[in-house]
Each structure stands twice: as structure tokens, then as C-alpha cells.
Design a protein that fits this description.
By secondary structure, the protein is of the alpha/beta class. The chain has 2 domains: about 190 residues, 2-enoyl-CoA Hydratase, Chain A, domain 1, CATH 3.90.226.10; about 50 residues, Lyase 2-enoyl-coa Hydratase, Chain  A, domain 2, CATH 1.10.12. The chain is built from 11 helices and 10 strands. Strands 1-2-3-5-7-10 form a 6-stranded mixed sheet, sandwiched between helices. Strands 4-6-8-9 form a 4-stranded mixed sheet. This is Enoyl-CoA hydratase.
């Protein structure tokens, strides 16, 4: 399938999705998000793909929403678009999404980054939610995910001033996993994506879902959910293969069954 605003590649079990509006710093318009969600869903269903890498370019992961689509629209028009319903589908992707982030990750770009399960950032990354400077607020999860990621105090400062933080600060607050030189951020993210792609697919997906439940469930309910996932994986062929390979001191061959 060909797209206007994203490109897609595959490498060693990794589906690579690149935002592709470089002239306007990968500003997120409705069509780009629709294309992105369509392809993420396709990759999620593809048995040959085990992890997904999401990236932009060195100057911008995504500099925010395309304001041209909102500047003249009424509140009722935007409400009828129900544009955030499409965003909600990103959180339903079962395979891990690795973000390779450089340059601007602002507004919707920050919200999209926070939908990734792991983020490798370049030293040039600039991350924030500047919507307040336009008289609005985040609408695709920015207030909710930012508080969960960096804590209430820091999130309030970022949301109410609109000021961005550096990659180093993002690492300090746990918003990204790793900060590396801009020359290698993509390669580091791809290397990590390939490493995870080599793990047993069922275990990867069950672990991802259980970890995300930690944000939603009380501790005991989360523990029960985790145990059920553990018991489920005991029935998989990959569990048998992994343990047998360990005993035989060889590399396991996981099939996702």
C-alpha cells in the first residue's frame, strides 16, 4: 500500500514507519494520522512483523498538529470530526512500538511519542506540550500520559507554561529511555527493535499489555492480571522451545505459537 505522508519498510521482523512531511516538520494532519493508524494496524496483524519502529527525521519527529486544519474550524466542526477517536486506536496495537525521536516532538508529536512503548531520543530532541500558547490544551492524551510519565509537578509546569524540555531533561524524568548522539539515534532504535523482535512474540505482547495495565488497575488486580498472563504463556509452544533450548544450551527458535 502506498501512502502520501508516511513511508513503510521492513527489516528482520521490524516494521519501520517514517512520518514524511519534512517541509513542515512532520506536522500531523488528519490524513497523516489516518495513514499511520492504518499501517500500524496492518503491521500488528502481520505475523512476520514482531516489533514496530516509528520515526521522523533528524529535524523533527513531529512538530505538532497541522494548525491550518483547526484555525478556522468551529468547535462543533472539530467535535464532529471525532479526530481523536483515530488516535485511540494506537493504544490498541499489541506489538511493541519503538520510537526513534530527534528534533521537535511537540504537541501532537509529544503525544504520539508517548504512545510508543520505548523511546530512543537524539541529543537534539526538544519535547513539550505548547498547546496553551495557542489558547487550547492537549486533546490526544497529553495531560494524562504526561502526568503518568513525569509526575504531576513537572507535568503541570510543562502544560501551563508550554515550555519544552531537552532530551537530557526528558531522560531525567523518565519520558524517554535513552539519549544518544543524533548520528546514531535511528540505528540504536532499530537495533533495539530487532533485539525485541527476536524474543517470543506471544510473551512480548502479553508483557506489553500487562505493563500497561499497571497504569489502570489497583496493585492486586494488576497482580492477578499478570498471573493469568503467566499461566497462558505456559501453554505456548514458545515456552517449551525456550526452556528446551536453555537446557540444551542453544539459541531458541521462537514461532509465536
Amino acid at each position: 500500500m502506498s501512502y502520501e505522508y508516511i513511508t513503510v519498510a521492513r527489516e528482520d521482523g521490524v516494521g519501520i514507519v517514517t512520518l514524511n512531511r519534512p517541509k513542515i516538520l512532520n506536522a500531523l494532519n488528519l490524513k497523516l494520522i489516518d495513514e499511520l493508524v492504518t499501517e500500524l494496524t496492518n503491521l500488528d496483524k502481520d505475523s512476520e512483523i514482531r516489533t514496530i519502529l516509528l520515526t521522523g527525521n533528524e529535524k523533527a519527529f513531529a512538530a505538532g498538529a497541522d494548525i491550518n486544519e483547526m484555525a478556522e474550524a468551529s468547535a462543533i466542526e472539530i467535535m464532529k470530526r471525532d479526530q481523536f477517536a483515530v488516535w485511540d486506536r494506537i493504544s490498541l496495537i499489541s506489538k511493541p512500538i519503538i520510537g526513534a525521536v530527534s528534533g521537535f516532538a511537540l504537541g501532537g508529536g509529544c503525544e504520539l511519542m508517548m504512545n510508543c512503548d520505548i523511546v530512543i531520543a537524539s541529543e537534539t530532541a526538544v519535547i513539550g506540550q505548547p498547546e496553551i500558547k495557542l489558547g487550547v490544551m492537549p486533546g490526544a492524551g497529553g495531560t494524562q500520559r504526561l502526568v503518568r510519565a513525569v509526575g504531576l509537578r513537572k507535568a503541570m509546569e510543562m502544560l501551563l507554561t508550554g515550555d519544552p524540555i531537552t532530551a537530557k531533561e526528558a531522560l531525567q524524568y523518565g519520558l524517554v529511555n535513552r539519549v544518544v548522539p543524533v548520528e546514531v539515534y535511528y540505528q540504536e532504535a532499530l537495533k533495539l527493535a530487532k533485539q525485541i523482535a527476536g524474543q517470543p512474540p506471544l510473551a512480548v505482547q502479553v508483557i506489553k499489555k500487562a505493563a500497561h495495565k499497571a497504569d489502570d488497575l489497583p496493585l492486586q488486580e494488576g497482580m492477578d492480571y499478570e498471573r493469568n498472563g503467566f499461566y497462558l504463556l505456559l501453554a505456548s509452544e514458545d515456552r517449551k522451545e525456550g526452556m528446551q533450548a536453555f537446557l540444551e544450551k542453544r539459541k531458541p527458535r521462537f514461532t509465536g505459537k
